[in-house]
Amino acid sequence: MFTVIIVTLSSSIELYGAVETKSGENTITNVAYDTNPQQDQGEEVETEEGFAEATHSPAPAWTVIPFVLLLLMIASGPLFYEHFWHKNYPKIAVILAALVISYYLFVLHNTHGPVHAAFEYIQFIALLASLYIASGGIVINVNKRSTPLVNVVILLIGAAISNLIGTTGASMLLIRPFIRLNRNRIKAYHIIFFIFMVSNIGGSLTPIGDPPLFLGFLKGVPFFWTLEHNWDAWFFALIVLAVVFYFLDRRNKVKEEDLEEEMVYDNKITINGKRNFIWLAIIIISVFIDPNIIDGVPGITYDGQTFSFIREIIMLSVAYLSYKFAKKDIHELNEFSFEPIREVAFIFVGIFGTMMPALDLVGDFAKSDAGASLITHNTLFWGTGILSGFLDNAPTYLNFLAAAMASQGASLSVVPHVIDFANGGVYYDSVLDLKAISIAAVFFGAMTYIGNGPNFMVKSIAEQVGIKMPSFFGYIIRYSIPFLLPLLFLVWLLFFY
């Protein structure tokens, strides 16, 4: 399995010449793998997009040690040395990231990886922080008795909303009312299934839903492609999880001593801080203020790619203004604090900084002819999925899509190629390949706390209000393996096998 994962990931694929398609019958003569050994390190190579930085020396295998060490500390710190970890995790994450980045800059003389990682991190944290802070000024109170059916309805509604305001937006908006609704019977599984359904799988239908799908949209995948092709797997997965959760929740009986006396339910839903929905709307609209979508929007061009900064300025400004003008009593009702977003910000500094060698190493292997020959929708599904559970799923999505397209002579950097790959009819089995990558990147993001940004934030919010959450490995062993993994196997069997 590890070989399959290695084979199907590509961090940067340069093309020329001719390659054979997966069907083995047709040949596309415009592109193929660039294996030119004549390029010297640091030499500039002329391309269609201008001058791009040439390939640098590959990162040696030992450079993945900081990434592995960070994952192990995330997993073991809260369990075995909790006080030390909570006091020092910011320093640990920054130091490990700095070690890898310094090696790239001063030993490999590679600025490409660190600069791209920096831009991607800024985009990531600007969105998460703005949604977290803006939603913190909204209090939704569901004055109903907590029952398994009510909980299932909320989870399904949250999953649907994820496609309109993103998995992060829906998670931040609904996790607190979901906890309050179940305050007399809240257990860890409530939070875990919320992560499964709302923070991940729910956002599979639109590019707004989850960051990997939005990156695909920026590259040229049509906006409604995900709705058209992902709805069946989305619907199946949510129904299965809803049924499993329902029967789990039925076994959760409230003890008499935990009941609140004279509690009156009027079955009403009240919302305070409604003006913060305006801030949320601004954030969602700003997602599309990108130089790759709208001509004329200023951007920063580096190494053939244009990065936005206006969008991030808007998001961070909204974060500041929404907090400044929010009512303090609403923050108190929400038990709002900056600790969850602070934890996410530092942990993911470490992840973005240290995961570069892992992506580069598997990417280098995927450039080989042997690697390309093993790419199928099956290996794309499991390869994209497993790595999305431990690496950020957005760059994983792009790397696997680049590998899948390159195996058939297409380039991710050419928009018409992406459109043809998404629409089918030009490249062999390309629609199923893209569906496998898209579903796996989003669904498998729920496998661990670090698979998707909202996961860690939801966990942190739950812990802030006193809910005992499982450790990193506890999450995987007690919930991902027995509940999520069989579902993912069924999804693969029904829709891809």
From TrEMBL:
InterPro entries: CitMHS_2. Keywords: Membrane, Transmembrane, Transmembrane helix. It comes from the Bacteria. The chain crosses the membrane at residues 61-80, 92-109, 121-140, 152-176, 188-209, 229-248, 277-294, 306-323, 344-362, 374-391, 398-419, 431-451, 472-495. This is Sodium:proton antiporter. The lineage of its organism: Bacteria, Pseudomonadati, Bacteroidota, Cytophagia, Cytophagales.
